[in-house]
Write a structure and sequence with these properties.
This protein has helices at about 1-25, 75-85, 140-145, 165-190, 210-280, 285-355, 415-420, and strands at about 35-40, 50-55, 60, 65-70, 90-95, 100-105, 110-115, 120-125, 130, 375-385, 390-395, 405-410. By secondary structure, it is an alpha+beta fold. The strands form four sheets. The chain has a five-stranded mixed sheet.
């Protein structure tokens, strides 16, 4: 899976590099297209220069000259074509006395420039999307600035709303709650894995000072050490108790064996003494003493068996208590973690809303970060290259050409990769 992910990311990087290379290649000398306006001047003709719009068929119409095809010409080629065609035409000017005079045009008298370019269009997450006049050397950054800048909630300049200071306070307050929940979750995960530390780095995109995050992380870290210390102390107590019980079981088992041997010996002695008594060779007092000894040894053996059974039960209780404590601790931590994750999800949603409220009027900078991710502005230029339209991912410093459509969309880094 890791290998596949690396291959996919490498493919994305290669694709983006190729697209940016294409974007760089197509920005060369500009070629006239329908919608551009050219201005042609003749120094020796008083009522010139004349302006003409390039028509859909790629031609312009000039009085006394006619239709001239200019589509696809660069500015230099336009000058050359006009300086070639106009000297072949005959121009007449009316004199003050009502007569006419024929003008001979020299190539050096002719000037031809691109007066106005086709507009560019900006759409998407900007304040004022729409058409803009193109200016030579225009960049994506400039076009977005003219459109009012980035904006998650556009067209709200005329709407009244909360004080931005209050919105900023609420935004940072939410970040404080998110940071506390973030480090609390990190502490719970560490405790579940019986680790005595966790990563104290602030969550990505946090606008809070590092000192605040460090203080919260320190508090959670101390709580983690105390909780682990209590747990480990309880485990050590149970370990010792279970070990002591095991030792006592071992001692009682040996004593039980010794006492069992004693009872067996007393039983054999009683049988022997009973035979001698029945044969009249022993007195009644001797038989009573042997019986008393057997009773005492049997009572001792029974007491040892009961004590051994109790100790074994206690040993099992210690093991069950250990398992019970572990399960209860895990259940408590997992419940706390579930509630923390739910709180983080809710705070993330609130941060999205607060971030958007803080940027209703556009801005030159990127939007405010959201919990756990950094929002990026993905800029795409839609441009006609040859006979086809292409979508070219670009950065803010990319050059714009007349007729481009600039699309702006906010997305996280993962979303941008998926779109690419």
């Amino acid at each position: 899976m890791v290998l596949i992910s690396r291959i996919v990311l490498a493919s994305i990087a290669a694709f983006c590099t190729a697209q940016l290379a294409v974007a760089a290649d197509v920005v060369g000398p500009y070629q006239l297209s329908p919608g551009d306006t050219v201005e042609v001047g003749v120094a020796s003709v008083p009522d010139w220069p004349r302006r003409a719009v390039v028509q859909m068929d790629g031609t312009i119409a000039l009085p006394e000259v006619g239709m001239i095809s200019v589509a696809g010409l660069t500015s230099t080629e336009l000058q050359i074509r006009m300086a070639t065609i106009l000297p072949t035409k005959i121009f007449h000017i009316r004199l003050s006395d009502g007569g006419e005079q024929t003008i001979i045009i020299k190539p050096d008298d002719v000037t031809a420039i691109i007066a106005d370019y086709r507009p560019v269009y900006v759409t998407g997450d900007v304040l004022t999307p729409g058409q803009q006049a193109y200016r030579p050397m225009m960049t994506v950054r400039q076009a977005i600035a003219v459109a009012g800048g980035y904006s998650l909630l556009r067209s709200r300049t005329s709407q009244s709303g909360p004080d931005p200071v209050d919105l900023r306070r609420d935004y940072e307050s939410l970040w404080g709650e998110y940071t506390k929940a973030y480090f609390h979750g990190a502490r719970i995960r560490a405790e579940l894995m019986n680790k005595d530390s966790f990563d104290p780095q602030m969550p990505q995109g946090s606008p809070l000072p590092e000192s605040i995050g460090a203080a919260i992380a320190k508090t959670e870290g101390e709580a983690l050490k105390i909780a682990l210390g209590d747990y480990q102390q309880e485990q050590r107590f149970l370990d010792k108790a279970e070990k002591d019980a095991a030792t006592e079981v071992e001692v009682l088992t040996k004593r039980q064996q010794v006492e069992a041997d004693g009872v067996k010996a007393d039983e054999e002695d009683l049988a022997r003494v009973t035979k001698l008594y029945e044969a009249g060779n022993l007195t009644n007092n001797r038989l009573a003493d042997v019986r008393r000894a057997l009773l005492l040894s049997s009572s001792g053996a029974l007491q040892t068996s009961v004590e051994l059974l109790r100790t074994r039960h206690q040993q099992e209780d210690y093991a069950r208590q250990r398992e019970h404590d572990d399960n209860q601790r895990s259940i408590g931590l997992l419940t706390d973690l579930k509630e923390t994750e739910a709180s983080l999800a809710e705070l993330t949603s609130k941060l999205h809303a607060a971030s958007q409220k803080l940027q209703p009027n556009g801005a030159s900078a990127q939007p405010l970060p959201i919990a756990g991710e950094t929002i990026q502005a993905q800029v795409t230029v839609i441009r006609k290259v040859g006979a086809e339209w292409r979508k070219l991912p670009v950065d803010e410093d990319a050059a714009v050409v007349p007729g481009d459509t600039i699309e702006v969309k906010f997305a996280s880094e993962l979303e941008s990769s998926a779109i690419q």
